[in-house]
Design a protein that fits this description.
By secondary structure, this protein is mostly beta strands. The chain folds into two domains: 34 residues, no CATH class; 138 residues, Galactose-binding domain-like (Jelly Rolls, Sandwich). 8% of the residues lie in helices and 34% in strands. It is built from one helix and eight strands. Strands 1, 3, 4, 5, 6 and 8 form a six-stranded antiparallel sheet that branches. Strands 2-7 form a two-stranded antiparallel sheet. The radius of gyration is 21 Å and the shape is globular.
Length: 178
């Protein structure tokens, strides 16, 4: 059983004492929190182009800093349908993707799509769509559920728009298929 708050610990202790008698008891959290690994940290990233120091790797460096000037975000050149791709190196079931948006120009990600699959056709941008990003506030994190979509490649693409693409961190959670 996982305990989430001090109040829950004390409530459970009172119930336990009621079942097991009085005495000297101390409430201790059970510590059963499970943090799944971020699969992106083991992958390889690429993107359609690079503007300045906005390399693709910056989105999987484990740093959620959202300030472009601190060199932790990707940035493509302004182009039609810019994309960023993560190669997980093996096929996984992807349950969720978390994205940290740049603090300045957050509207650039509006309408971007998250695509997951096995194909590199059209640079991976034809793979099944997991989600459409309708808006992420500047510097904020948004989580997108992908319901176990299977794939090796995670693409983020802004379709049919002449735009810059910037991502400050992309985290992928799921399980490997053997």
């Amino acid at each position: 059983m996982c305990i989430e708050s001090r109040e829950q610990i004390e409530d459970n202790l009172e119930r336990w004492k009621g079942d097991h008698g009085s005495g000297s008891w101390e409430a201790q959290p059970e510590g059963c929190q499970f943090d799944p690994p971020n699969l992106a940290l083991q992958g390889k990233a690429t993107q359609s182009s690079r503007y300045s120091f906005g390399i693709a790797y910056n989105a999987i460096d484990g740093n959620r800093n959202s300030k472009w000037e601190e060199a932790s975000c990707t940035l493509t050149k302004k182009s039609m349908s810019p994309w960023w791709r993560l190669d997980l190196l093996k096929t996984h079931k992807v349950f969720s993707v978390s994205i940290v948006n740049q603090d300045s120009h957050p509207e650039r990600l509006n309408g971007a799509e998250i695509r997951i699959g096995e194909s590199l056709e059209n640079d991976g941008n034809n793979n099944p769509r997991c989600a459409v990003i309708t808006g992420i506030a500047g510097g904020a994190v948004a989580d997108f559920k992908c319901n176990g979509t299977e794939g090796r490649y995670i693409n983020i693409v802004i379709p049919k728009r002449n735009e810059f693409l910037s991502l400050c961190e992309v985290e992928v959670y799921g399980s490997r298929l053997d």
